[in-house]
Design a protein that fits this description.
Layout: E1 7-11, E2 17-28, E3 31-39, E4 45-57, E5 64-69, H1 73-90, E6 96-100, E7 106-117, E8 122-129, E9 141-147, E10 153-157, H2 162-174
């Protein structure tokens, strides 16, 4: 296995060599597993073609040896559980903003949705206080905002008209 690009070859069911790229490796239940994608002739990953095998580490050179198919349905279930856990951990962190209330108190809030209106030529944000409570149990607030160059919230402004409030409420009801 090439450590820099983390690719290796396997022999497919058709007897031909297949280049593979390591997605990640992990140890569980006294075995080592490699999750990998298949590589096409141009060196690109084949979308949606991800699989797993067990392997041994060669202590002398750190390479994977003795690649073997995953044997049981229980192992596949465990692999799926590991993948789902990792995906949850790598999921994008919520965007947080600081909102100053009418008394001048700052509160950290979590952005739940941003959108724009062509009719009003403005951007809007829906947000909730950042707490440990489930989102469904938190009060939802809305404001218009001025985006910075990257599209993130630079400044919050009040929603000015009843027509804007009706528009924002319609968006909220669609979520």
């Amino acid at each position: 296995m090439n450590e820099e690009i983390q690719e290796f070859m396997i022999i497919g069911k058709d007897g031909k060599e297949q280049k593979c790229r390591v997605v990640f490796t992990f140890d569980a239940e006294e075995k080592s597993y490699v999750l990998f994608s298949l590589i096409d002739a141009d060196g690109n990953e084949i979308p949606g073609d991800i699989s797993a095998m067990t392997f041994d580490y060669d202590d002398n050179n750190g390479e994977m040896t003795n690649l073997q198919p995953v044997e049981t349905e229980a192992e596949w279930e465990m692999i799926n559980e590991v993948v789902l856990t990792l995906l949850d951990e790598f999921e994008e962190q919520p965007q947080l903003i600081t909102v100053t209330d009418e008394e001048g108190n700052d509160q950290v809030c979590e952005v739940i949705h941003t959108f724009t209106s062509e009719q009003f030529a403005k951007s809007y944000v829906l947000y909730v206080p950042a707490t440990d409570e489930p989102i469904e149990e938190r009060d939802i607030f809305a404001a218009q905002f001025v985006p910075n160059e990257e599209g993130y919230i630079e400044e919050l402004l009040p929603i000015e008209t009843d027509e804007e409030w009706a528009f924002v409420e319609d968006i909220l009801n669609e979520l």
